[in-house]
């Protein structure tokens, strides 16, 4: 279930800095996530399902063999996109460890090497559209979208080369095929064990 809180509910007008402040200060139960999205709301989601976590674990395994040696792979890191005054918590994010030495509650998108989102039934469109738009505006070089709920068949899409608020390149494969991540990773992710949404 996805609960949406309107601007009035969190008492913040559309100003980007105020949205970011509300996002930082919202108090949620353990495992829940809040994200500021492009239509002017804060989305609150419960902890991910077991299939969702399985996919994150399988991707994490592959990334560990190809990530830059000075980069970390994280699952609960807030990413601030200053250009649009929004903030997300990717399912997986790869960043240089040096960017984590900060007193800020989240990091700027400019440090992100790769953002990974795994769709849930209730937020698939958010990951497909709002986050693609947001990560592109934050100049995140690679955005991997694992879409368990794509119909007629689930897919994995790698977006690359952000420019003008979108990604200039994309490669999409159905579950069961492999998808290659370019440098600095140079790894192939086998999606054959990814469970589809039902």
Automatic annotation (TrEMBL):
<dbReference type="InterPro" id="IPR008538">
    <property type="entry name" value="Uma2"/>
</dbReference>
<dbReference type="InterPro" id="IPR012296">
    <property type="entry name" value="Nuclease_put_TT1808"/>
</dbReference>
<dbReference type="InterPro" id="IPR011335">
    <property type="entry name" value="Restrct_endonuc-II-like"/>
</dbReference>
<feature type="domain" description="Putative restriction endonuclease">
    <location>
        <begin position="28"/>
        <end position="188"/>
    </location>
</feature>
<dbReference type="Pfam" id="PF05685">
    <property type="entry name" value="Uma2"/>
</dbReference>
<protein>
    <recommendedName>
        <fullName>Putative restriction endonuclease domain-containing protein</fullName>
    </recommendedName>
</protein>
């Amino acid at each position: 279930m996805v609960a949406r809180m309107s601007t009035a509910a969190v008492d913040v007008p559309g100003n980007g800095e105020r949205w970011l402040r509300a996002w930082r200060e919202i108090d949620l139960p353990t495992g829940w996530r809040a994200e500021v999205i492009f239509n002017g709301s804060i989305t609150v989601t419960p902890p991910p399902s077991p299939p969702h976590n399985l996919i994150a674990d399988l991707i994490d395994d592959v990334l560990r063999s190809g990530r830059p040696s000075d980069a970390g792979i994280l699952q609960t890191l807030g990413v601030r996109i200053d250009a649009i005054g929004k903030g997300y918590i990717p399912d997986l994010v790869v960043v240089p460890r040096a960017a984590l030495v900060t007193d800020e509650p989240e990091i700027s998108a400019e440090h992100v090497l790769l953002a990974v989102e795994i769709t849930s039934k209730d937020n698939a469109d958010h990951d497909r559209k709002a986050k693609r738009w947001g990560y592109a505006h934050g100049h995140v070089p690679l955005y991997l979208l694992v879409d368990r709920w794509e119909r007629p068949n689930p897919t994995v899409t790698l977006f690359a080369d952000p420019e003008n608020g979108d990604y200039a390149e994309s490669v999409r494969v159905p579950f069961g095929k492999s998808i290659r991540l370019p440098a600095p990773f140079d790894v192939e992710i086998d999606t054959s064990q990814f469970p589809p949404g039902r």
